[in-house]
Design goal:
Oligomer: single chain
Largest sheet: 5 strands, mixed
Order of helices and strands: EEHHEHEHEHEHEEEHEHEHHHEE
Number of domains: 2
Strand content: 15-25%
Strand order of the largest sheet: 1-7-6-4-5
CATH topology of the largest domain: Peroxisomal Thiolase, Chain A, domain 1
CATH superfamily of the largest domain: Thiolase/Chalcone synthase
Number of helices: 11
CATH class of the largest domain: Alpha Beta
Structural class: alpha/beta
Bound molecules: oxa(dethia)-CoA
Radius of gyration: 19 Å
Length: 333
């Protein structure tokens, strides 16, 4: 029997309707469209502003669409890995909430926390379950309702993030398609540069933590930028080298969408032109765990069986990495 690899066999995504544009932000904080565009490449983001809706509700939309597309039911899913930093609650896991909402009775599942690298870590984890031979259908979900933890009086962070979510189905492949290689890293010494100060066991919520606005994202942007630009480019170059891939061999770079300047630096280091780079930051902003699957969703019809695809990300923690995929299917017309 040939070696089993984990192939992505279906992709779907969901973004809320409501758009938050740079012009809207100009009315909320001291910023302007020119600054945001030139420093980040973001024009607008989506916001889930319907009261009572959470991250799991975006997942229900995306996953139900995926099941329909693939022609399977929720009961066919063996495992749900939900990569997010904005789960519906601290516990139970949003994987549990999602399983209940879509009616997945035969799955186990869990949430995975790796900030903006969460989808990569989720893919790698899901792939190992498939490669074991025991699991046949693994759902990897990545997404965030970032608007639930963003301070819309802080111009350093509110211009960057948006809400959105994507998901992929992993299935066994015996012809060498799917996830070929990965390099994933964490360095917790970077944890003070991008984090949520309160709400966890270190600083449980109090009136004081709320008054100090400590339940929102804090980011030392300049420091994160430096680490992100260096590490995302390096790990992408490393995975190409390890797999003897030249820039010509790479069909697509799927980069985390934190800042267009970081994306460009990564592509440049790989020697890959802009025409091979998936970019959705202009219209979705940084959706944290959602950026990579949302790119795959938007570009799915352009992907061809056998395409060499490099996914790369960097996020809070610090966490970062790259995954090399040999795309497994042509999208039916
Ligand atoms: O996704 C997870 C990983 N996250 C990242 O990779 C994000 C990495 N960081 C970044 O993308 C960038 O650092 C930011 C986009 C967050 C900020 O861009 P920057 O070029 O690093 O700007 P800065 O923070 O160094 O600020 C430059 C200037 C400052 O003014 P002074 O001190 O030079 O007078 C800021 O006060 O721009 C000012 N500024 C703004 N001006 C207008 C900061 N934010 C804004 C704003 N509008 N929204």
């Amino acid at each position: 029997m040939n070696k089993i690899t984990a192939a992505i066999t279906c992709v779907n995504g969901y973004v809320p309707e409501h758009k938050l544009t740079n012009q809207d932000l100009e009315k909320m904080v001291d910023t302007n469209d020119e600054w945001i565009m030139s420093r980040t490449g973001i024009k607008e983001r989506r916001i889930q502003n319907t009261p009572g809706l959470a991250t799991s509700d975006m997942a229900v939309e995306a996953v139900n669409g995926l099941l329909k597309k693939r022609g399977i039911t929720a009961n066919d899913i063996d495992l749900i890995i939900f990569s997010t930093v904005t789960g519906d609650m601290i516990f139970p896991s949003t994987a549990c909430v999602l399983a209940d909402k879509i009616g997945a009775k035969n799955a186990f599942g869990f949430d995975l926390s790796a900030a903006c690298s969460g989808f990569l870590f989720g893919l790698e984890t899901g792939a190992k379950f498939i490669e074991s031979g025991k699991y046949k259908k693994v759902l990897v979900v990545g997404g965030d309702k970032m608007s639930s933890i963003i301070d819309y009086t802080d111009r350093n962070t509110c211009i960057i993030f948006g809400d959105g979510l994507g998901c992929v189905l992993l299935e066994p492949n015996e012809d060498g398609y799917g996830i070929v290689d990965s390099i994933l890293k964490i360095d917790g010494s970077g944890r003070q540069f991008l984090f949520q100060k309160a709400g966890g066991s270190l600083n449980p919520p109090t009136h004081q933590t709320i008054d100090a606005r400590e339940h929102y994202v804090y980011q030392d942007g300049k420091t994160v930028f430096k680490f992100a630009v260096t590490n995302m480019a390096q790990v992408s170059a490393d995975i190409m080298e390890r797999n003897h891939l030249t820039a010509d061999d790479v069909a697509w770079l799927v980069p985390h969408q934190a800042n267009l300047r970081i994306i460009d630096a990564t592509a440049e280091r790989m020697g890959v032109g802009r025409d091979k780079v998936m970019i959705n930051i202009d219209h979705f902003g940084n959706t944290t765990n959602g950026t990579l699957p949302l790119c795959l969703w938007e570009w799915e019809t352009k992907l061809k069986k056998g395409d060499n695809i490099i996914l790369a990300a960097f996020g809070g923690g610090f966490t970062w990495g790259a995954i090399y995929i040999k795309w497994a299917y042509n999208t039916p017309a």
